[in-house]
Design goal:
The complex is a heterodimer of chains A (287) and B (159). By secondary structure, chain A is of the alpha+beta class. Chain A has 2 domains: 167 residues, Uridine Diphospho-n-acetylenolpyruvylglucosamine Reductase, domain 3, CATH 3.30.465; 103 residues, 2-Layer Sandwich (Enolase-like, domain 1). In chain A, the strands form 4 sheets. In chain A, strands 4-5-10-6-7 form a 5-stranded antiparallel beta sheet. In chain A, strands 11-12-13-14 form a 4-stranded antiparallel beta sheet. A 3-stranded parallel beta sheet of chain A has the order 1-3-2, with helices on one face. In chain A, strand 8 and strand 9 form a beta hairpin. In chain A, helix 9 runs antiparallel to helix 10 and helix 10 packs across helix 11. Chain A is globular. By secondary structure, chain B is an alpha+beta fold. In chain B, helix 2 crosses helix 5. Classes of the chains: A alpha+beta (287), B alpha+beta (159). The interface between A and B is medium-sized, with 25 and 31 residues.
Chain lengths: 287, 159
């Protein structure tokens, strides 16, 4: 195994594009090292991205959004007061990943690229309309977060392509988001179902909404009908009922050792209602 | 496989070692530097027995490569006691009998110290959540939590 420490994304792309055999990128390493140890993936080329300038930074974009470096850990994210105030749902998704120790290393980009349908940080990024910058041999492009996973354990990145940053758009006024997951214990577990909701209000009325579902499909699911059920409402009982019907209809889960199809379709509705209420309250100014 | 020269600071001492890029930091600490306090329980970041601090951040040393330690400041359980005087956490673990087989203890001590360094007055709930990534199959955790709370109280008085 060759270990590289490129000083720029261009250099990292060059290494990856010209490498033959299995290539892995190293940021937090909480998936790569587990696979290495288990022998499921033994890279021929391991490219450590943490020495590239800017990868540890959380910075304001010109339009008032955020650019999050690919090596920013869960702890760094959680300790960034301004980001937490604007995007609590994004941050609380990431903060549910693993233990304190894992939080010290794990990254949003890693959680996304690992391709788990149950990745806790991904639904919140999707409802935030986050994008990633993909750099590769043919230049760079912006890709919506929901378009990165390709299925369990897979993503759409081609050889030589790397995500160089995650961008959150400006939050805007009277907006709030939330992420909730169900696990059978209180900590250190993989989501059986995860739901993120983001809303923007005009007075009491919801004028924009996004709903994303985790662990109920091969990859994160954008529930457009569920968002439509919220828009124009004041989150009254009828809107909640329509939201719940929509997420249950959208969910296409499997039965496995962590939950059945019936259970997941039921729980997704419960979590959607709760997450919508939290997002709505946050948009109203609740902390 | 060519080995990589790594310079780091471990428990205040400058150290140099040669790491195979496939070796975890835990392997390097134990096999290259002879610091066998950090334990390998699972090797996959689930049990916390290998907990160390890297530039002050608590991590599993099994989830980090030795080569990534270049230029870093590492803290292990061997750095807790001050020349023969146990750290209050270590003393309270003994007083409260907060260990049985002891395999998880170094990791829990390092994790607890990292908690108290950034939150000197944690609630019991905060202690339990912070230590959720440190598995102990003997004690049932109650005595560990009591020892950490007691050590925190003593450390607050000492300030």
């Amino acid at each position: 195994m060759h270990y590289y420490k490129p000083q720029s994304f261009d250099e990292a792309v060059q290494i990856a594009a010209s490498a033959s055999g299995v290539t892995r990128f190293l940021a937090g390493g909480t998936d790569v090292l587990v696979q290495l140890r288990a022998g499921t993936v033994t890279p021929d080329h391991l490219i450590d991205l943490k020495l590239i300038p800017g990868v540890h930074d959380i910075a304001r974009t010109e339009d008032g959004g955020w650019k999050i470096g690919i090596a920013v850990s869960g702890i760094d994210l959680g300790r960034h007061a301004e980001l937490v105030a604007e995007w609590p749902g994004v941050v609380e998704g990431m903060s549910l990943v693993g233990s304190t120790q894992v939080q010290g290393r794990a990254t949003l980009t890693g959680n996304l690229c690992n391709g788990s349908p149950a990745a806790d940080s991904v639904p919140g990024l999707v409802t935030a309309r986050a994008t990633v910058t993909v750099v590769g041999p043919n230049g760079s492009r912006e890709v919506a977060v929901e378009d990165i996973p390709a299925g369990p354990g897979r993503n759409v990145l081609q050889q030589g392509e790397i995500i160089s940053a995650i961008t959150l758009p400006p939050r805007g006024k009277n907006s709030g988001d939330a992420y909730l997951r169900f696990i059978p214990r209180t900590e250190m577990d993989i989501a059986v179902v995860g739901v993120a909701v983001s809303v923007t209000l005009d007075g009491d009325k919801i004028i924009a909404a996004r709903v994303a579902l985790g662990a109920v499909a091969p990859k994160v699911l954008v529930a457009a009908d569920a968002a439509a059920a919220l828009i124009g409402s004041t989150l009254d009982d009828a809107a909640i009922a329509a939201l719940q019907a929509a997420v249950t209809a959208a969910a296409v889960p499997i039965t496995d050792r962590r939950g059945t199809v019936e259970f997941r379709k039921d729980v997704v509705a419960v979590l959607a209602a709760r997450a919508a209420r939290i997002a709505y309250d946050r948009a109203k100014g609740a902390v | 496989m060519s080995k990589v020269h790594v310079s780091a600071v471990v428990n205040g001492d400058n150290v140099d070692f040669l790491a195979d890029p496939r070796e975890s930091l835990l392997d390097c600490l134990r096999d290259q530097l002879g610091l066998t306090g950090s334990k390998e329980g699972c090797g996959t970041g689930d049990c916390g027995a290998c907990s160390v601090t890297v530039d002050g951040v608590l991590v599993c040393s099994c989830l980090m490569l030795g080569v990534e330690a270049e230029g870093k400041t590492i803290g292990t359980v061997e750095g807790l006691a001050d020349v023969g005087t146990l750290h209050p956490l270590q003393r309270k673990f003994i007083e409260h009998a907060a260990l049985q087989c002891g395999f998880c203890t170094p990791g829990i001590l390092v994790a607890s110290k990292a908690l108290l360094d950034h939150n000197p007055d944690p609630t019991e709930t905060e202690v339990r959540y912070w230590l959720a990534g440190n598995l102990c199959r003997c004690t049932g955790y109650d005595k560990i939590v009591r020892a950490v709370m007691d050590a925190a109280a003593e450390l607050r008085e000492a300030v």
